[in-house]
Sequence to fold (522 residues):
Amino acid sequence: MADITLFPQPARLERIGADFSLAADARIIAHDRALGEILASYLRPATGFALPVQETESSEPAADANVIILEKMVAGDSPEAYSLVAGGTALRLQAADRRGFLHGFQTIRQLLPRQILAGEVAPGVDWRIPGLELDDEPAFGWRGLHLDVGRHFFPLDFIKQFIDMLAFYKFNIFHWHLTEDQGWRIEIQKYPLLTEIGGFRSETIVGNNMNANEYDGQPYGGFYTQAEIREAVDYAGARGITIVPEIEMPGHAVAALTAYPALGCRGEGYEVRRKWGIAKDIFCAGNDEVFVFLENVLDEVLALFPSEYIHIGGDEAPKDRWKACQACQARIQAEGLADERELQSWFIRRIESWLNARGRKMLGWDEILEGGLAPNATVMSWRGSEGGIAAANAGHDVVMTPNTYCYLDYYQSVDTQSEPLAIPSILPLRQVWDYVVIPPQIDKEKRHHILGGQGNIWTEYMPNSDHVEYMMFPRAIAIADVLWHHPQERDYAALVERLQRHLPSLDTLGVNYRRLDEADSA
Ligand code: ACM
Ligand code: ZN
Fold:
């Protein structure tokens, strides 16, 4: 299929018959005008064609007309399934659900000459799609990318571009990491200091976090207003993507503690962090006001995000402060807990029952296994796959995001000197491509607990959006491919060939990426 390159690769694709040529007088015939308009809006800028949308129940056009037909029909087992037939004067897209149509639109964009991705008229292009039949649906229902906006802040415009790229590669989850030691990024109306104070740090460490003596002297910060958050949620929803918000607790909370010091065990002496790493200061588990605060925050979060899943962090929460805190020790006594690990588990369970009572599911990093897992928790396995294996075998749902395959903040090349500064670990494209989502250690009857996987983008060393794109691509494309069709056999040379044909599309889109070099292809 050398002349057709799609990412992710579809489940079934067959070349048949004559090519479909999109002509200037083409029409879109759709059972749903709004859907037709979405497709038209993708096709109009580059072609300059008017492409009227006609809403109709009957989808049998005149034989000589140049048409794109959107037809509501069961196309596969998944609600995200779609099928596409291209040939002669017609291009026919079938799906049962809006999500399937949206995936089909992205496939059409990738099948046309790449100039279709240009934002303005691209003259002299023959808008042709090879004759084909294609049936497609995803292997996994959770296909995510995570973005940390705490360490560095990215404005709403970039968040929208990020969402566009997720849609282009058929991801369906945007995990938005909104709170950190270095910055609280979501406006909470009840607690304005979270962003007024917690949204800004006085300066930032320069270079590698290990050389901790040099700071840049530049105040840094930013946050999203609730209106902007709503805009992002709507923008994502229109593109078939759910935003899963993450509000970190009990750790990674120094920005919040700086704004409201009474919420920490020490009660004072906090400063929005200027360097990276793990902070000892975390929310106090002995103070009931902490839960009042977190529930009020989450109340506003639930109102903004329709996502069934709410991520509460749970990772990297050192127990030093809890050990020295009278209130935390009193809580351990009162609740009959064995130690601080069980106190963390108690904390997370309390939040889970609050979320469950409001119809939401709690998701947390795999540290939430320590001291006993909350009864309905979904685990995001990041410290390798072990946490995910344990959780799935215990009957919990799991999202796999092992750092060894999915951490896109790691260096892309073993030749780290030739790469911009990153966290000191290495994850080349080749390794991402070897990512097997369901480890064999999970019992056969428990494998359905693996909802899917995601790539994570931690931004300590990514000061701007160009740099985020550089770290994302091409590795996120390989993750998209693995999560969508999960090939049993992984032909790395074939992946590199496909990418070499595909990557110019990112140039047309104006998206930055790391060029493949000889080491990638060897
Ligand atoms: C994590 O990388 N701390 C979840
Ligand atoms: Zn405490």
In short: The chain has a mean pLDDT of 96. The CA atoms of residues 5 and 308 lie 34 Å apart.
